[in-house]
From TrEMBL:
<dbReference type="InterPro" id="IPR014729">
    <property type="entry name" value="Rossmann-like_a/b/a_fold"/>
</dbReference>
<dbReference type="InterPro" id="IPR014731">
    <property type="entry name" value="ETF_asu_C"/>
</dbReference>
<keyword id="KW-0249">Electron transport</keyword>
<dbReference type="InterPro" id="IPR014730">
    <property type="entry name" value="ETF_a/b_N"/>
</dbReference>
<dbReference type="GO" id="GO:0050660">
    <property type="term" value="F:flavin adenine dinucleotide binding"/>
</dbReference>
<feature type="binding site">
    <location>
        <begin position="284"/>
        <end position="288"/>
    </location>
    <ligand>
        <name>FAD</name>
    </ligand>
</feature>
<keyword id="KW-0274">FAD</keyword>
<dbReference type="InterPro" id="IPR001308">
    <property type="entry name" value="ETF_a/FixB"/>
</dbReference>
<feature type="binding site">
    <location>
        <position position="322"/>
    </location>
    <ligand>
        <name>FAD</name>
    </ligand>
</feature>
<dbReference type="InterPro" id="IPR033947">
    <property type="entry name" value="ETF_alpha_N"/>
</dbReference>
<dbReference type="Pfam" id="PF01012">
    <property type="entry name" value="ETF"/>
</dbReference>
<feature type="domain" description="Electron transfer flavoprotein alpha/beta-subunit N-terminal">
    <location>
        <begin position="29"/>
        <end position="220"/>
    </location>
</feature>
<keyword id="KW-0813">Transport</keyword>
<feature type="binding site">
    <location>
        <begin position="301"/>
        <end position="308"/>
    </location>
    <ligand>
        <name>FAD</name>
    </ligand>
</feature>
<dbReference type="Pfam" id="PF00766">
    <property type="entry name" value="ETF_alpha"/>
</dbReference>
<dbReference type="GO" id="GO:0009055">
    <property type="term" value="F:electron transfer activity"/>
</dbReference>
<protein>
    <submittedName>
        <fullName>Electron transfer flavoprotein alpha subunit</fullName>
    </submittedName>
</protein>
Length: 357
């Protein structure tokens, strides 16, 4: 297997400048813990793992921010932040914070930042995190790197947030040299999940909620759960089987679905498959789709374009099936099979069904 291209080490040679004196007031790495309807989004813990590395490099504390109602679920989330390495947890609890609403959450988070001045603030690039990060960065008038794929501290102790650019053909490292905090969002599964340590504990810092419900424009009248949703849970699946344009037509996607089902995994696809209307967008894997980190990824009839590759590189084992021995996917697959997916997929399904069933 060929070496995956490494993003450049965070470096801003040639653009060095003295950092303003006021930046000295800013310290610590913060992670916003996304708690929605009592459930912590796993990306928050992935960010705690990454935040710990940044804090250790900076020689500062790692802090978690938990915002929500006064409830058992909030209490549980606070406790978990320590297990995932938080030295301190900033907490704001109020009934008005039960459901996510941009206005109160932005106010709470910007108030906390104004008071305690973190050097770095990280959020998950989820629908909630993206919404909140944008409004917090705008309110604080600071820079935000969206969808970062690598975070590193440079020689001047500045955050370099690396992300794909120009349609994924290049990687760029973005620095926030004139404003603090340095903000970034990171998509689920881009960073590895750390192992929690239940013996760890830390400090709690409480702050109050300063808005009045009457002043909040958005009202949550009712929460309607989409029970019928068949949304794919690709990001956190252990086994993923995906099909690309090599499958030739929509009907042949069932070969991918069948194998995924027999293996107890999820199925996905490349972007053109979605663009053809053969699958819904939640099945797409890659730069503009899901990032996955399964134990096993089987890619059938997928060429291995860079935009697909960046979404699957975290997989433990990548198996590629392609008729073209020169397909780019063989550059990064751990196991390559030069074969017709239309005959190999059903054969694998049958063999696994016999063995596992
Ligand atoms: P193709 O490139 O057409 O490859 C089909 C492959 O199937 C070929 O390698 C062929 O040899 C093989 N094949 C043919 N017949 C068989 C057979 N019978 N059995 C086995 N193999 C066979 N793409 C993504 O996937 N995800 C993204 O998130 C994404 N985001 C993008 C974002 C931007 C801004 C841009 C510009 C592009 C993006 N793309 C993305 C598109 C990407 O560049 C590629 O075009 C795409 O991944 C190719 O899809 P494919 O491999 O299915 O199709």
């Amino acid at each position: 297997m060929a070496e995956a291209p490494k993003p450049p080490a965070a470096s801003r040679a040639g653009m060095k400048k003295e950092l303003p004196e006021r930046f000295r007031d800013y310290k610590d790495v913060w992670v916003f813990i996304e708690v929605e309807r009592g459930r912590v989004h796993p990306v928050s813990w992935e960010l705690m793992g990454e935040g710990r590395k940044l804090a250790d490099k900076l020689g500062c504390q790692l802090a978690a921010v938990v915002i929500g109602p006064k409830a058992e679920t909030t209490k549980r989330a606070i406790k978990q932040t320590y297990h995932y390495g938080a030295d301190v947890c900033y907490i704001v609890e109020h009934a008005a914070l039960t459901d996510y609403r941009n206005e109160p959450y932005t106010q709470v988070l910007t108030n906390l930042v104004d008071t305690h001045k973190p050097e770095i603030l990280l959020l998950g690039a989820t629908p909630l995190g993206r919404d909140l990060a944008g409004s917090v960065a705008t309110t604080l008038q600071t820079g935000l790197t969206a969808d970062a794929t690598e975070l590193a501290i440079d020689d001047d102790m500045c955050l370099g947030a690396t992300r794909p650019t120009f349609g994924g053909t290049l990687l760029c490292t973005i620095y926030s040299l004139n404003h603090r905090p340095q903000m970034a969002t990171v998509r689920p599964r881009v960073m590895a999940m750390p192992t929690p340590d239940p013996s760890l504990s830390g400090r709690m810092v409480w702050d109050s909620f300063k808005m009045k419900e009457a002043d909040i424009i958005t009202k949550v009248l009712e929460f309607v759960s989409d029970n019928t949703s068949k949304d794919a849970n690709l990001a956190y699946a252990d086994i993923v089987v995906a099909g690309g344009m090599g499958l030739r037509n929509e009907g042949n996607l069932r070969l991918v679905r069948n194998l995924a089902q027999v293996l107890g995994g999820e199925w996905g696809c490349s972007r053109p498959v979605v663009q053809k209307g053969w699958a819904t967008a939640d099945r797409q894997i890659g730069q503009t789709g899901n990032t996955i980190r399964p134990r096993l990824y089987i890619a059938a009839g997928i060429s291995g374009a860079i935009q697909h590759r960046v979404g699957v590189e975290g997989a433990d084992l990548i198996v590629a099936i392609n008729t073209d021995p020169n397909a780019r996917i063989f550059d990064f697959a751990h196991l390559g099979v030069v074969a017709d997916a239309l005959t190999l997929l059903p054969a694998l399904t049958e063999a696994f069904a016999r063995r596992l069933g």
